[in-house]
Amino acid sequence: MLLNAAELEALRGGLIVSAQAYPGEPMRTPQTMAQVAASAEIGGAVAVRVQGTADIQFTRSAVQVPVIGLFKDGHDGVFITPTIHHALAVAQAGAHIVALDGTRRARPDGKTLAETIEAVHERSAALVMADCGSLDDALAAAEAGADLIGTTLAGYTGEREKTDGPDIQLLEQIVASTLGLPLIAEGRIHTPAQARSALDAGAFAVVVGTAITHPASITGWFDAALRA
């Protein structure tokens, strides 16, 4: 296992920084994303989350903290590490944790979530983080063998309304279900206060991406405020 129990426990209560850029943007290079991830580590990030096999490889060399890796294929439906092929590629690139779509939706390769998680566990040393959109997703992902549960897709699958900020209610529902797995709060966490509220709601750790690592969005927020 790339992460032992003590190393995973070290993430508790910490900030995980997602360093991703969209295709066509100036920062969309593996080297740049690795540098952003390394800067986040200096700031106190306990882990980083990056997209694409090249980004994972560069980031593994740039940071000492665990790397959560994923592979986005498309923009709609199941597109976050959608198949066994993608999941194994992420693991082979060096990710300590493979993040994948953990919803109950049909997967492009026809495999079940359980089959996908089993393949990662059997053919790599990586853990699996299931990006979920609802309580039912979280329960099913836990049953399928996921090692961590994320609220990454809350508000994006049609099961829950897209909240302004993190879906605190969903966090509380999952905590109340006593799954016993690390619960990672992710999605629309834009301020330190929101991050704190997610942790107070019972999250094991908190992922922040756009508000830290996406200059175009952050600039847009300030610009909109000045023009209002």
UniProtKB/TrEMBL annotation:
<protein>
    <recommendedName>
        <fullName>Putative N-acetylmannosamine-6-phosphate 2-epimerase</fullName>
        <ecNumber>5.1.3.9</ecNumber>
    </recommendedName>
</protein>
<comment type="function">
    <text>Converts N-acetylmannosamine-6-phosphate (ManNAc-6-P) to N-acetylglucosamine-6-phosphate (GlcNAc-6-P).</text>
</comment>
<dbReference type="InterPro" id="IPR013785">
    <property type="entry name" value="Aldolase_TIM"/>
</dbReference>
<dbReference type="InterPro" id="IPR007260">
    <property type="entry name" value="NanE"/>
</dbReference>
<comment type="pathway">
    <text>Amino-sugar metabolism; N-acetylneuraminate degradation; D-fructose 6-phosphate from N-acetylneuraminate: step 3/5.</text>
</comment>
<comment type="similarity">
    <text>Belongs to the NanE family.</text>
</comment>
<dbReference type="Pfam" id="PF04131">
    <property type="entry name" value="NanE"/>
</dbReference>
<keyword id="KW-0413">Isomerase</keyword>
<dbReference type="GO" id="GO:0005829">
    <property type="term" value="C:cytosol"/>
</dbReference>
<dbReference type="GO" id="GO:0047465">
    <property type="term" value="F:N-acylglucosamine-6-phosphate 2-epimerase activity"/>
</dbReference>
<dbReference type="GO" id="GO:0005975">
    <property type="term" value="P:carbohydrate metabolic process"/>
</dbReference>
<dbReference type="GO" id="GO:0006053">
    <property type="term" value="P:N-acetylmannosamine catabolic process"/>
</dbReference>
<keyword id="KW-0119">Carbohydrate metabolism</keyword>
<dbReference type="InterPro" id="IPR011060">
    <property type="entry name" value="RibuloseP-bd_barrel"/>
</dbReference>
<dbReference type="GO" id="GO:0019262">
    <property type="term" value="P:N-acetylneuraminate catabolic process"/>
</dbReference>
